[in-house]
Amino acid sequence: MARPARACTAGRTRVTKHLGADEGTGGQTAGVHEPAAPPHRSQHPAPSPVSGDRSEEARAQSGADPGAEPQTNRLRYLDAATRQIARGMNLDETLDELCRAAVPAFADTAFVHLYAPLPIGDEIATAPGVLRLHTTARTPPRDPATHGPGPPSPTADTVQAAETARPAASGLLAKLLRDGRPVFGDTQGTDSSVAELLGTANVPRAVPPGRRLIIAPLHGRRHAMGSVVLIRGPGRADFTDDDLLVASQLATHTALGIDKAVLYAREASVADALQRTMLPPSLPEPTGVRLASRYLPSSRTAQVGGDWYDVIPLPGNRVALVIGDVMGHSMTSAAIMGQLRTIVQTLAGLDLPPDEVLHHLDEQAERLGTEHTATCLYAMYDPVLHRLLMSNAGHPPPVLLHPDGSGEVLHVPPGAPIGVGSGAFESTEMHAPAGATLLLYTDGLVESRDSDVLTGVEGLRARLHAAASQPAPPTLEELCDRALGTLGEGDRDDDIALLAARFEGILPETVAYWYMAPRPQTAGRARRLTRRTLSQWGLDSMVESTELMVSEVVSNAVRFASRPITLRLLCTHVLRCEVVDDSPLVPRMRHAQLSDEDGRGLFLVDQLAQRWGATRLSTGKVVWFEQPLPGDQAPPEESVAGRLDL
Amino acid sequence: MGSPADRVGYGNMRPDRTGQAEAFDAIGDLYDEAFPHKEGQVASAEWLIRSLPAESRVLDLGCGTGLPTAHQLAEAGLEVVGVDLSDGMVALAQQHVPAGVFHQADIADLRPGGPRDLGRFDAVAAFFALLMLPRAEIPLALQTVHHLLLPGGLFALSMVEADVDDFSIPFIGKTIRVSGYLRDELREVVEAAGFEIIEESAYTYAPASVDVPPEVQIFLRCRRHT
Q1: What is the pLDDT of residues B90-129, one digit of tens each?
Q2: How many angstroms away from the CA of A316 is the closest CA of chain B?
């Protein structure tokens, strides 16, 4: 794998990052800092030196007691260095801070190797993986003007580290890293480990003689994660025994920091996965409306948003369009979102009007805990009537892009958010012409640190208007991209959910709808209506099976209904029949006994129909079934357009 | 009501109109918003205009807002009388069609020997009006229409195809009670009242309100048997 290296200069240390060596963080943290904009921490100078020539300079300047001062200095250094290391929020930052703390104050060169993949959390460690060079830090050549007459370190850049090492599971290096205690490079039995980490060829000539190299294992709470190799150049004193303790401290804090960063990254990826699992894996493709959606997580790690969208097909080819946003950014938000989405789906299935859906959602949300609030907008599109019915619980207003390309911010009374318990929601009805596009979105699209919601909504409207005013009107997917604008690529403070619906409508000529009082002769009448309508639609070949199923379903409905039932026939890319009655008893398919007079009807439907279902509604139930049109016949626009002359 | 001179058999039947007029008083102009594009109705009135000599006298039964039918008939130079149960609708109709004469009245009051005598007409239009009556009254209303027409007079009728009697449905934010027949049965009822059906057509109509589901509308063009 080719590994582009990066170098950034912070303070007096040149740190080289080996990108791609941090697989364990889920890739979330591998962002490349712009060299032109160094991180804020570069303003902090590296902690003061401890031993070796540089500390001697400092001591000489302060004129302090050479006996007590080194220990105090060492403690000061450790105090500053460990705090610096602890500042890192992710893997890269933690290792950068280590290098800045160690080089040049403590050593001239630092090599950090990490196991790939990086062991995570409490998982049982598998066989040791490959050690990959992750970060290199070196003291830059010293500037004689500022650092006195000392000779430059000729070897500073000459020591090289192995890009990869494959320590044998039972080998000395693997054991050394498992033990977690730093050792000098010249300790007996350490040669082979040094050779492995630096690459054999380099060892003899690159490392100066004496105690100039420390291998400090990076050992987290449970796992060996890698090592840091610290090397002093020729112009500097050897490491002392105390320095070994300093190295141990640096490595321990770094390892704990890595543990923390990896767990944090994993939490972020779990939260992100949770959030995505809670969203629809794909959108349904209901007749009469085209749909597109987007979900963009916040660009900040572990900032899960709780935004959601949903599309729920309803009886009569109507469709519910939902968008919502659970307040807060946490795993809890995502979990609450998942529950609210399920509640909305259940309520939508009952075919309640939008304000009722929000009212019951509000009631149910209270059971999830009073501390959770959410905004939600519920819209119901009827492609036959070309009408839109909407209710809002504190959500930003939807934007309607008219067929002529003009954008309109829809005035839906905002209502109180879900979970506040105010319970007062109203439905707004409006015309939804074919060719218009409704855009539902969450506040992340229109709100940012730099602008308020109103400005953002107006900006969105203007973007959509601009997109729709071009000679070639944009596809729905393009429109989504245009709606996102620069937010699609750039930094986002918040997550964004987007649901776009382009209304196509259904010709009323492809629909037939009757109320029928439940009487013994109703099934026969329903058969007659079915026969007549199918014949008008040119679907004579389907008459027999459809009549049979309609008869069965209507007979069943009539037995339990106390008010008139409805029979609806819809001819789109399929022939759909729906029978609604006011009895809440939902029929279930069961094996009829010889003695049973009923219970066979649904078996028949199950055999003959392509799909069928029975759903409880707030006012009863609907039983529906669908059949494919013969030979993929197009909807009967030609045959029934305009008047049905009899 | 129930007078001995009652030749149309209301007998002791006391029509219950509770809430019906009030609903339409409240609905007002919203009715035309919920039911735009009345092509079927316009075509039927067109048939009347085509078939009648100028200045013929036409009754618009259940005239509603006066749009589009009373207006259309008056524009064509016919003498228009409109009747509706709802005061509010009568006021709107008068406003929309200044040339017409409009009365608040119940169709039962127009029966032979009933309290209101508006004279005889060359034609009667009853678009989605009789469906507001309970089924038992519809044959009586048809007999009243028969009585109001001169021999050979024309009758344009529209109904929603349904098999219900005095059934409460939500309607533009209110509740109304409606009745209906399936096509074959409607023909029987109309023919039994003494009409010849000249032409029949049906449309699926999608109202512009989620409160009213799409409906199958039947239009009958009839002539009074002599």
Answers
A1: 999 999 999 999 999 999 999 999 999 999 999 999 999 9
A2: 9
The pLDDT of residue A618 is above 60 = yes
Average pLDDT over residues A104-127: 81
Tokens standing for A359?
């009212």
How many CA atoms does the CB half-sphere of A292 hold within 13 Å? Answer: 17
Give how far A535 is from chain B: nearest CA, Å. 14
Residue type (1 letter), B223: R
Higher pLDDT, A150 or A474: A474
Phi, psi of A630 (to 5 degrees): -65, 130
Domain A279-503 superfamily per CATH: PPM-type phosphatase domain (3.60.40.10)
Instruction: Give the tokens for residue A449.
Output: 């640190």
pTM: 0.74
Compute the residue count for chain B.
226
DSSP H helices, A154-240, are 172-179, 191-198, 203-206
Of the listed ranges A89-103, A147-161, B148-162, B212-226, the one predicted with least confidence: A147-161
Q: In B, which residues are within 8 Å of A513 by CB distance?
A: 204, 213-216
Report the pLDDT value the prediction gives residue A168, as an integer from 0 to 100: 85
- Asked whether the beta carbons of A626 and A574 are under 8 A apart, the reply is yes
* Site from B42, B197, B210, B215 to mutate, A interface, most A CB atoms within 10 angstroms: B210
Domain assignments of chain B as residue spans, ordered by start: 20-224
- Count the alpha carbons within 13 Å of A314 in the hemisphere toward its beta carbon: 26
- Kindly list the domain boundaries of chain A, sorted by start residue: 50-145+152-269, 279-503, 508-640
Query: Which of B40, B163, B207 lies nearest to residue A516, judging by beta carbons?
Result: B163
Q: Class for domain A50-145+152-269, per CATH?
A: alpha beta
Q: Which residues of A touch B167 (CB under 8 A)?
A: 515, 517, 563-564
Contact A514 B216 (CB under 8 A): yes
Which residue does chain A place closest to B160, by CA atoms? A514
Q: Which residue has the tokens 């009212």?
A: A359
Nearest Cβ partner of A643 from B183, B203, B209? B203
Q: Which CATH architecture has domain B20-224?
A: 3-Layer(aba) Sandwich (3.40)
Cβ within 8 Å, pair B209-A517: no
Domain covering A508-640 in this structure, CATH number = 3.30.565.10
Nearest to B206 among A384, A429, A514 (CB): A384
* 8 Å CB contact of A564 and B162: yes
Q: Is the peptide bond before B68 cis (omega within 30 degrees of 0)?
A: yes
Q: Check whether A344 has a pLDDT greater than 90.
A: yes
Give the separation between CA B143 and CA B162, rounded to whole angstroms: 21
How far apart are the two ends of chain A, measured CA to CA in Å?
Answer: 75
Phi, psi of A302 (to 5 degrees): 65, 20
In the Cβ-directed half-sphere of A322, how many Cα atoms lie within 13 Å? 34
Closest Cβ–Cβ partner in A509, A525, A645 for B204: A509
Minimal Cα distance from A644: which residue of B?
B202
Which residues of chain B are within 8 Å of residue A528 when distances are taken between CB atoms? 182, 184
User: In this structure, what token pair is assigned to residue A65?
Assistant: 């007691």
With CB atoms and an 8 Å threshold, state whether A385 touches B206.
yes
Mean pLDDT lowest among A423-427, A621-625, B156-160: A423-427
Confirm if A536 and A637 have CB atoms less than 8 A apart: no
Q: What is the pLDDT of residue A124?
A: 62
Q: Which SS3 state, helix, strand or coil, does residue A588 take?
A: coil
Contact, B153 vs B223, CB < 8 A?
yes
Give me the interface pTM, i.e. the ipTM: 0.92
Tell me whether residues A385 and B210 touch, CB distance under 8 A.
yes
> Is there a common fold for A50-145+152-269 and A508-640?
no
Of A29-43, A314-328, A330-344, A435-449, give the lowest mean pLDDT range.
Answer: A29-43
Nearest CB to A508; choose among B165, B182, B214: B214
